[in-house]
Amino acid sequence: PEAPIKLVEFGALSCSHCAEFAEKASAEIRETFVNSGRVNFELRLYMLNPLDPPAALLATCGAPEAVHSLADQFWKFQPEAFANIQKNQAALAASENLPIGERMIAIAQAAGMSDYFASRGIALDQGKACLSKPGAAEELVRNTESQSKEYSITGTPTFLLNGSKLDTNSWPEIKAALEKAGAR
User: Residue 1 above 90 pLDDT?
Assistant: First the structure.
């Protein structure tokens, strides 16, 4: 947290471009830049569609230091989650009529998220508690709306470097910007 260079990613767990970025960049960001003590890398989960709130609630359900790792793992699982949703369209449609907490649980189950995160240390009961926590999903949506306005975010992934929005989401260009800012 005390690192002089701050990189913030606004990323949606349902975003295929975010998944691609994570695949190409996460290890190098962590191993080269964060581990050097020069860069603080913060992931702010962004809500693009109905899959994002339950995925974000599950990814943040455990220890704070596990969020990056769980997000990276979920991005690898993303194609399977999409396939599960395609197979479970009726359950997804039925979830629209449920109270918000029950809706989050239904979407997570239809996408296979509950079992996926359970296999990564978020027990099913723990996951259900996080998914149904009063106001949690609405807070994620409010945060997305306010950050969209504050930082003019129009898509994901979007990056801030030391508080300034970068005009790229390409890892080679972000890496060059980090190095120019003094990261090593």
Answer: no
